[in-house]
Amino acid sequence: MSLDADDPHADPLAASDVRHLRPRGSSQGGLAQYNERVVLQAVRLHGPVPGAEIARLTHLTAQTVSLITKRLIDEGLLIKGAPVRGKVGQPSVPLMLNPEGAFSIGVKVGRRSLDVLLVDFTGQVRERQTQSYLYPEPKAVLDAIAHSTRLFTRSLGLQGRERLQGIGVAAPLSLGAGANCWACLPRWPRPGPWWTWPPRSSAAPACPPPS
Question: Of 13, 63, 135, 172, which alpha carbon lies 20 to 30 A from 86's?
């Protein structure tokens, strides 16, 4: 059963979630980039969907949606599905996210392991590298991130590397809290220099942008 935020009989909590997730664009001028994101969000949440349904979901005009989707198809972010024939009229052509449209790398630095993922535009994990350790020494972690990044960018090829959007790094706030944090863990070796480690500037050399 589909949820409609405007249905008085719908569950209020579920309806609230729909209102929060529902993309809404604007047909006013100067909002082209914002509307592109709104259309992509609508396709991500509801796709594959035809242009008429995208217009209904985003409250954009059919002409605006047609122009935006054509541009997104030309940029390789959307692809057309097989035409769907209805009972009357012309068949509709559903649009969906192109998995090859963009890629990103996600890094999770944990207390006992490191995970590095390559994710495509639909959010699917393409490749994963995992490394376990007793303690996350910053240099060893950065070397492992750089190694995984090189493997991923090599597997993407030239066209895929050009669509690599960025790298995100996540780590516990208490990772570098010192001896009080690590002393409670089994086989704790010593407090590390994580509190002096700026993630963005330190990880950047290990993860250079593709050339």
Answer: 63
